[in-house]
Amino acid sequence: MPNMLRKIGSAACHFFWWTVPSSKIGRLAFWLTPLYLLLWLANREYHAGILAVLCLLDALILIVLLCFLLLRWARRHLLWSLRSKLILTYLLIGLTPVVLFLTLAGFASYVLTGQFAIHLASTRIDAVLDRM
Q1: Is the pTM for the entire model greater than 0.70?
Q2: How deeply is 39 buried, as exposed, middle or buried, from its count of CB atoms within 10 A (0-12, 13-18, 19+)?
Q3: How far apart are CA 59 and CA 50, in angstroms?
Q4: What share of the chain is helix, strand, coil (3-state, %, to 5)?
């Protein structure tokens, strides 16, 4: 019987340690998550001020760690291939001058339209003053 319990305990321990992340930050986030849940449940039950502060502190640390882990995962798993990077570079090199030229042309047409409107208004005002 003790041998069987050891086997079950060993299998459970093996499964449990298999799920624990290997990096220090991952392990810290892994252990802070149940701590946060326990603090949150205790705070709901006892409404103690120190529990709320500890729960908030744990949540803030956990959010920072999870953001860091998410960025690290995204960098590792979502890296583009060289082909995609080259296509993006060529598009940026090709599109940047076009966008800048269109912006400059739009700004110039806006200024010229304003100047033309001022010219028309001053011409009409001069015409009305000449009739008086």
Answers
A1: no
A2: buried
A3: 14
A4: 90, 0, 10
